[in-house]
User: Fold these one by one.
Assistant:
Number 1:
Amino acid sequence: MITNLQFISKIKILTLLFLSISFYVSAQTDNTNVQDEKKSVFSSFDLGADFKSRYIWRGINLGGNTVSIQPYVEYNFAKGFVVGVWGAYSLGVQPNQEVDIYVGYTTPNEKFSFLLTDYFFPDYSIRDNNYFDYDNSSGHVYELMASFNLFDDFPLGFSIATNFYGADKKIDSEGEPTDKQSFSTYLEANYSTSIATVDLSFFAGAVFANEGGYYGDHENAFINLGFTVSKTIKITERFGLPIDASLIFNPSHENVFFVFGISI
């Protein structure tokens, strides 16, 4: 029988193998212009960074009171498939730094997408925070998210994300974590539109089965309500600077955030 540790290790090995094969195929076509043009449709690299005034994730402050730099590297290794690394680093002395590895797939009609994410917080003051420990009691949190938009003429989308493995455990009557998975689940609805020169996105998110306190104190609660306004400031004929601002309410925590961001 395959253990949980073996299962997670095999997922990572298969992902690295898939990525290596993609690199090899890409290298074989570098000297042929026609093949390069065809290949560019199916595979490409992307990298960049977001600079946020605060790191607010699903209505929760994860970056303290300082600016957060959030770099990423992403590789589309087949049509609809993507693998990437995303991080968050506060400029001040904050404990909540983050490095996430993810693999995703979007259907050809772009109505459905699936994302598998390995969340990890590289802070050695946290218990069991060894990155290469993939046991169910380690500091990793594995989440599977599905997003969908079934309407062609109405930009209303939905997503559901569940922690299925790792450091999201139920808490006992004395407030201590048990060995039972909480399976905390986050649901969100979003609606996007445009007004004049800006894009506007409204969102409403709630958490369910939060028996381990992963999203806060309440088991079932609305934690992420608000909207984001974004636009691109034209700098030159060929370069624009994307900016955004978000007003975020967390009714469960009775808190509010106003976050500004710049992307490069």
Number 2:
Amino acid sequence: METRLRRMREQRNSHNENARRAADSRDSVQEQSRELRERIKERLDEQKEVRTRAKLHQAKRDEIQNQMRELITQRRGKRSDEGTKSVVIQLSETIGEIDRIESRIMTDGSLSLDKENAMLKKLKTLIAKRDELLPAAEEFQVIEIDLGDMEGSIQLLRAEADSEHKAMLDANKEADAIWEEVKPILEERDFLRAEGDRLHNAFVSSREAADSIHSEIKILLDQVNEIRDELKAQREERERLIREHNQSVRDALKTPDEDEELASSLADELLKKGSITLGGTRTTDDPRPHRGKKRKKSRKIGTRRGKRN
């Protein structure tokens, strides 16, 4: 079980290592994807500004062409309805009428008081209309028209319309070029997004595998600990039995001078019986043992000298 536990720990660590590598790779890919998204956003914002500029040139072109058509209509002797006139044409006509009335008031000395007051009232209305038309005309930044020179104004408007049309086409080409630049970046972004998802799934799968093995390890570890506790208890029981057996042997081999209880019991028996029997000894009136024969003293032998001649 301990071998299996060690092998399972190695598998869990391997899964955790795979998860860590997948997470590092995922974070790196997501960082690249984030940088690409910021770059794409910048380019798309730039493209949006270019498209807006193109629409503005288109609106100016359409307004100039509308003015040019109205001038052509007037030159042919046809009258346009007031509601269909362009803002610039209305503004030009209003400014021309204001100039004419102001010039007459200043130069015509034959005007009666009533006539002059009527002209002043009309002038006030025209000035209010001019002030109302100015903001709308300034929005398109169109050129002023000289109604006294219709042919010249028509040619000027045609040239200005062509210029605005060309500016619109150039702006659209620039926006298209930006889009062509962004398209491969979008493909790379999609690839990085898919790669990031794949690495994240690999990370989640490895972590789940590691967690599953960890749960099994906990169960097996509880079993191992239970068995270890049981083995420990058995070992302690054997050691206890051995200690008790050794102690009982030591107690059985003790002499009276080593065992107080035995010495006390022998003393009591001696007092009662007057004699004590110990294993291998015999009782006698003379407790002294018989003396053996005396050993002869060994004679000392020295070196003998020979006779001298």
Number 3:
Amino acid sequence: MAQLVIFTDLDGTLLDAKTYSWQAAAPALDELRRRRTPLVFCTSKTRAEILPLREELGVPDPYVSENGGAIYVPRNYFPFPLPAARKGADCDVLELGVSYAKLVQALDEAAETSGVRVRGFSRLTDKEVAKLCGLPLAQARRARQREFDEPFLLEKGTAKQKEKFFNWLQQRGLRWREGGRFLHLMGDNDKGVAVRRLVEFYTKKYSGRLRTVALGDSPNDLDFLAVADMAVLIARPDGSHDPEARAKLRGVRLAAAGPAGWCAAVEGILASSH
């Protein structure tokens, strides 16, 4: 039987879009732990944000931070060396993204050149991030510990200025994605690139007997939803599904909103994989 591996977004998917609670997904999480099914977080969150959640949920598997900026693999998780991996304190790190300092500089230059007004995380205080995201101050502080991805708000600019802004970034090999609350500036990386790399590792580990499932809720998740054998699109808080993701993903499964929808979708998949 094929080994099931689940890749999941966090905000608005496994975590409630407003409260960030995962409690409604507890039954499915318990079953995944019981079956020892790998659960890989694939998120725009920083490593500093992911680590406490992994510990809280007892998830021992690799994770993808900052929209594919880096893959973190616990030491000796795969029974073979990982090419181009950097040795971290307790894990192997595959860095796929552009450094944060370069992204911040590029965002400022693109805004100045085009005449638009942007506000990136680097220019926000912990308190401002907490208010914008509905986070406690300590979590907002962790959200600002960025390495490979700059979330930003495009606050002012004409259509022509915005076009010039995005063209400037594109000409320098940079990309952006629309997340739940912010636009995200990154290098030539995305969640899909990171998930493909992990699928290669899992395929090698399980000798090709692999079945992958990906769950997400926004256009920011399209890249990695398209990689999986099965894609599940979680509804937005108002119950609708993102039209762009729905249109671009063939055969996508639709699920209800937040961790409750996530739970029902995962339980259904597990029930059919006996």
